[in-house]
Structure prediction request, 159 residues.
Amino acid sequence: MAKKDKSELKIKAIENGTVIDHITATKSLHILKVLGLPDCKTQNVTVAMNVSSSEIGRKDILKIENRELDHKELNQVALIAPQATINIIRNFEPVKKDKIRLPDKITSILKCTNPKCITNYENEPITPKFNVIEKYPPVVRCHYCEKLIKTEEIEKQFE
Prediction:
């Protein structure tokens, strides 16, 4: 039996799906929660946490088999891991690789942290909207009350 190469991948390749790489270390569980994973439809989800990275020191990696993330899901990931990379895999080959991009406006992903904001009143069916002020680290401003929501407050909403 041949000796295994020590630099061999420790995480199994996926045939089809999405790989989220360069996630800020220890944030992958927040991303799983936001995406509602694992669920009964998604069979294989692989999580690698706090692994070495020559680019960012430490990172997390998520592999989600047989699922490609939609635009709203990518925006949610961008709020938690603004330096992440998204890879779409088909037939074991990456067909698309992009750096995640936080959009200029965010709708219905976050809640305003101002308890007096109109979006927090139950009898007012208003969808929360935010303007992105800083992309890294993420800082957003409520469209209605203009409250600034910083990265720490954003992350708490996904815990």
About this structure: The chain has a mean pLDDT of 88. The helical segments are 28-35, 71-80, 151-156.
